[in-house]
Amino acid sequence: MPIAPMPPRLCPICKERLWEEDRISRNLALRYYLTHVHNTHLEFQRWNNRLVWKFRFAVIVIILAQFLQVVIDVGLRLEIIWLGLVVTAVATMAFQKRRGTGRFRRSWMEEHGMPSKQ
User: Fold this and answer.
1) What is 12-56 written as a DSSP string?
2) In a structure prediction context, what are the per-residue pLDDT tens digits for the chain, which is 118 residues long?
């Protein structure tokens, strides 16, 4: 089982098919995806990278806060709060990713028209 999911076969912005092969390794699919996004949708790639770093920072802060709670030994059982913070961070990132991708897709369609059927 792969550590991360396969990248999308169709570009999330322009809906271009990124590879034709039926069976392809995750690494090669990721290379096709990243090359296409870098060459065609550089602004989207920059936005997506910033979003990923913000998410990583939030998760690190939550983990450090959890660690400090253990070190300080507050005596309160805050695991449910920490779990809620992690779930909130993941849900917020997913919402922002979906909303931002839709914004970039609409912008691309305004400039280039509807994607062609491939």
Assistant:
1) TTT--B----SS--HHHHHHHHHHHHHHH-HHHHHHHHHHHHHHH
2) 446 788 888 998 888 999 888 888 888 998 999 999 999 999 999 998 998 898 888 888 878 877 777 666 655 566 677 777 778 888 888 898 899 989 988 988 888 776 555 4
Any idea where the domains of the chain sit in the sequence?
A: 46-112
What gap in Å lies between CA 23 and CA 25, rounded to an integer? 7
Tell me the CA end-to-end span of the chain in Å, nearest whole number. 29
What's the rounded Cα separation, in Å, for the pair 117 and 103?
21
